[in-house]
Amino acid sequence: MSANPNALVLFMSHRPALVNYASSITGNRVQAEDLVQEAWLRFDAASDRRLIEDATGYLYRIVRNLALDSKRRLVRESRLTSAGDYDEAARISADIAPDPETVALYKDEYAIVMAAMDELPERTRIACEMHRFGGAKLKEIAAFLGISVPLAHKLVADGIEHCKQRLDQA
Question: Sorted alphabetically, which Gene3D superfamilies does this protein's record hold (predicted)?
Answer without folding.
Answer: 1.10.1740.10, Winged helix-like DNA-binding domain superfamily/Winged helix DNA-binding domain
